[in-house]
Amino acid sequence: MTDKNNQPMIIRPYGDRLDDGIVQTAFVLPVPPSEKAKEAARELMRKMGFIDTKIATMEKAAEQYSFFIGYGRLKHTIDFSAIDVPEVVINKMSRTELDKWIGEKIGRKIVVFGACTGTDSHTVGIDAIMNMKGFDGDYGLERYAMFEAHNLGAQVPNDTLLDQAIAGHADAILVSQIVTQRDIHIDNARHFIQRAKDKGIYGKVILVLGGPRIDHKLALELGFDVGFGPDSRASDVANFVAKGVVEKKKVL
Ligand code: B12
């Protein structure tokens, strides 16, 4: 992306007035609250590159831990025009338009299998995408006449999801990863892709990765066809998958 004149577009954060560089940040230190802890927090912010540092909040987070909210000013700037990230470009149809389009282009229902995989037990995200009710007024895949949606739930091993998707002749597989501690979502996603390759279906089905710390760039790097992050909508997923199926043609 560039600005209108294809010129560099230098930006920095602002708090009170444009270009003041003010940032709010929050972190935890493994020491109880004290004046010494507060000064340590300010020193840490200075090391992060902040000037005019101020600790607005210091609270006990647990035994021997303190939570801080700090304000500081940054000199750093970003050239917005030099930032280049892949985005999911969707020319979106409504639910009824999409159902009609699938009927015309594919002539059958699109089969989708999804789950929250590995040790992750958070189902709300995958439910928001797949279940009838959907999320924030945006109906889930079950609501579409031309989607056959199988939501396997939480803590589903990658192999189980893949095996059931293969047995069910899936067009797309949806993987949800919410917990990100120690990058477990990345390890699990990599394992899923490896097992999809081992089972010979990689490249033959649309692979979708979603979760609050997922973005399209990361998903592509991991070997998925698309990534959906926070605030995703089933309607976006439905449009992406339907167009992907039409382009890839079903092989399974
Ligand atoms: C509800 C909840 C739980 C419930 C889950 C119940 C359930 N059935 O899902 C319970 C109590 C079981 C739970 C347990 C745990 N939780 Co919890 N939980 C949450 C909480 C409060 C809300 C999550 C949620 O429902 N969000 C709403 C949905 C709609 O948002 P979403 O998941 O982001 O999904 C959207 C997008 O990401 C995307 N999306 C998601 N998946 C997919 C998949 C596809 C294919 C697509 C296209 C899109 C997509 O679309 C969705 C809609 O827009 C969050 C904190 C928070 N506020 O987010 C913590 C949170 C996720 N939990 C956390 C933790 C640590 C845990 C536990 C480890 C706690 C513990 N020590 O036991 C356990 C995990 C156990 C396990 N094995 O997984 C941490 C994770 C930290 C991290 N970075 O990894 C969080 C962030 C809380 C925190 N701040 O510490 N949790």
Task: Describe, in plain words, how this protein is organized in 3D.
This protein has 252 residues and is α/β, with parallel strands linked by helices. It has two domains: 10-79, 2-Layer Sandwich (Defensin A-like), CATH 3.30.30; 95-248, Rossmann fold, CATH 3.40.50. It is 31% helix and 23% strand. It is built from seven helices and ten strands. The strands form three sheets. The protein has a five-stranded parallel beta sheet, with helices on both faces. Strand 8, helix 5 (184-198) and strand 9 form a beta-alpha-beta unit. Helix 2 (95-105) runs parallel beside helix 7 (234-248). The longest helix is centred in the C-terminal third of the chain and has 15 residues, at 184-198. The model has no long low-confidence stretch (mean pLDDT 93).
